[in-house]
Write a structure and sequence with these properties.
Radius of gyration: 27 Å
InterPro entries: HATC_C_dom, RNaseH-like_sf
Number of strands: 0
GO molecular function, one term: protein dimerization activity
Number of helices: 13
Low-confidence stretches: 262-281
Pfam families: Dimer_Tnp_hAT
Helix content: 55-70%
Protein name: HAT C-terminal dimerisation domain-containing protein
Shape: extended
Largest sheet: none
């Protein structure tokens, strides 16, 4: 749909051209302004949904992103629907209702628990019922793992309220926004009672997208024509390919930044040259 919007001018020129044979019905659709306005609105409505899906399919996504993603999706979609001129109140409520239903279907106790133990969020925004579900999950985990429930829950309360070891004034909180949540726990709070649980559930991916990409990479490497490759060599080839992709992305980013710097330098030189040749100087 976005490609249609980007090529609107070209399509309209095509519709009025005498060199191309197009049916009158298609011409009418292309030249209808309301169609383009509706198409633009559809793209705006779908954009928060696409962003939400992509945010949980990254290689760096963690399970705690699910709750945060649903909250952002609801806010973003509400804002877009408020600006809609074609949808009535019933349709808007229906769309928001579908999002809420999907959230209720997807969100389980572990999602609330992992969001509660994410140092970036510390359960911010969770309702009392959500916190209760998170606590029940952690309690069940303790029982099944043979951990002291009282110590773990006490430690969890200290974490969420940022007291005792987790005092807000400590420097351990400043890297929380930049580090992966699991890395944060492994680095700063590995020996805390709730640390083992946090590391475990924060290692769970929110979707199978990363695994499927990995399987696809294996499929392109260990093909029918190369089925005699040993597992050790396949792993090495996959590792090389993955790291090359990362380096490629890094190089593209550096190249983009360098080009911006060159543009800014060119602008500065041009400005200086102009000022020196100004007859009023």
């Amino acid at each position: 749909m976005e490609s249609y919007l980007k090529n609107r001018e070209a399509l309209e020129l095509l519709a009025i051209s005498h060199e191309v044979t197009i049916t009158q019905e298609i011409k009418t659709i292309i030249l209808n302004t309301d169609i383009w306005v509706k198409l633009d609105e559809i793209v705006n409505i779908l954009q928060p949904l696409a962003t939400a899906i992509l945010s949980t399919e990254r290689d760096t996504s963690v399970l705690s992103d699910v709750y945060y993603t649903f909250e952002n999706l609801k806010k973003g979609l509400s804002q877009v629907l408020d600006e809609s001129v074609f949808l009535d109140a019933e349709d808007k409520n229906l769309l928001l209702g579908h999002v809420s239903s999907r959230k209720d279907f997807c969100m389980q106790s572990i999602h609330f628990a992992v969001y509660l133990l994410d140092p970036r969020h510390c359960g911010n925004g969770l309702s009392d019922e959500d916190i209760s579900k998170a606590t029940e999950y952690i309690q069940e985990y303790c029982v099944s793992s043979g951990l002291d429930v009282t110590n773990v829950l006490t430690n969890m309360a200290e974490f969420t309220t940022k007291t005792n070891f987790f005092q807000e004034s400590k420097p351990i909180w400043s890297p929380a926004k930049k580090l992966q949540p699991r890395i944060w726990w492994q680095t700063f709070a590995l020996n805390q009672s709730v640390g083992a649980i946090a590391i475990k559930i924060l290692s769970v991916p929110p979707s199978s997208a990363a695994s499927e990409r990995n399987w696809s990479m294996f499929a392109h490497t260990h093909t029918k024509l190369r089925n005699r490759l040993k597992q050790s060599r396949v792993l090495k080839l996959i590792s090389i390919r993955s790291n090359l992709n990362l380096l490629k992305k890094k190089d593209e980013k550096i190249l983009y930044n360098d080009s911006e710097d060159e543009d800014s330098k060119d602008g500065e030189v041009e400005h200086v040259t102009t000022s020196n040749t100004d007859p009023l100087v």
